[in-house]
Amino acid sequence: MKSIMRLALLIFFFFLVYICVNGQPRRQSFSLAERVQQLTDMASKKSVLRFNGNKFRDYLKASPRNYSVIIMFTAMAAQRQCQVCRHASDEFTIVANSYRYSQSYSNKLFFGVVDFDEGSDVFQMLRLNTAPVFMHFPPKGKPKAADTMDIQRVGFAAETLAKWIAERTDIQIRVFRPPNYSGTFGLVVLFGIVAVFLYVRRNNLEFLYNKTMWGMGALFFCLAMTSGQMWNHIRGPPFLHKSNTGQIAYIHGSSQGQFVFETYIVMFLSILYFIIVRNY
Ligand SMILES: *[C@@H]1O[C@H](CO)[C@@H](O)[C@H](O)[C@H]1NC(C)=O
């Protein structure tokens, strides 16, 4: 009896070991056709797919692949204090939506996002310590250096993103920005105010011949243009740059770019110069 008990115990023990080794639910891996189908289904609901660590491994580490994915690595949670991330996300969504409703839409290219708070393991795996980062995952192999967009140099305006994607994937995306009427509205209001002002002062329009007023206007226009406000308006550079070590750069390191703060410094110095020259 005792030996039978011992045998039963032994069998039970092996049974436990077997469960521990094999019992954990295996992560099922999908075939290429299944993965493409799943990505297509997800993309039909949302133009930007959300990837956490597991999904990232399922769709971007799995091979073979026959699709490209453009991933934005970001940190949108408020406590991460990434101000540019929201702006970058807006531009990225514009590109993804433009692609989704364009003629070139196919299952060759998908757009996705990995948020630090959902996929910090992915950030670790790729040794990323900043956000936002735009990366292209090619159909074959790992991303190369050029598959990470150099946003320090070129910014991340939707048009720039589309151009970079065209270089990496040969898929041309025409960017459609949802029209922004606030600018037009502001202009109409401004014209209205000026018109009302001129009407009220219609009997006394002497001030229109005031040289100082026109001079100040022209000077301000020159200052705005020479300090690069138009470039800011078109390229949308960051206000300033905070490096991973916490150092803040107010002035762009290359002659190909600028920060908004930098243009304010230039404007301030120009005004200082004019004041000094005038007082001579
Ligand atoms: C990728 O492969 C899957 C499965 O063979 C296929 O359904 C899909 O059309 C392919 N995609 C492209 C872009 O060729």
From TrEMBL:
Superkingdom in the source lineage: Eukaryota
Record's keyword terms, sorted: Disulfide bond, Endoplasmic reticulum, Magnesium, Membrane, Signal, Transmembrane, Transmembrane helix, Transport
Gene Ontology CC: oligosaccharyltransferase complex
KW Oxidoreductase (keyword) present: no
Biological process terms in GO annotation: magnesium ion transport; protein N-linked glycosylation via asparagine
Membrane topology, from the record: Multi-pass membrane protein
Pathway assignment: Protein modification
Entry keyword Signal: yes
Purpose of the protein: Subunit of the oligosaccharyl transferase (OST) complex that catalyzes the initial transfer of a defined glycan (Glc(3)Man(9)GlcNAc(2) in eukaryotes) from the lipid carrier dolichol-pyrophosphate to an asparagine residue within an Asn-X-Ser/Thr consensus motif in nascent polypeptide chains, the first step in protein N-glycosylation. N-glycosylation occurs cotranslationally and the complex associates with the Sec61 complex at the channel-forming translocon complex that mediates protein translocation across the endoplasmic reticulum (ER). All subunits are required for a maximal enzyme activity.
Protein name: Tumor suppressor candidate 3
Organism: Acanthoscelides obtectus (Bean weevil)
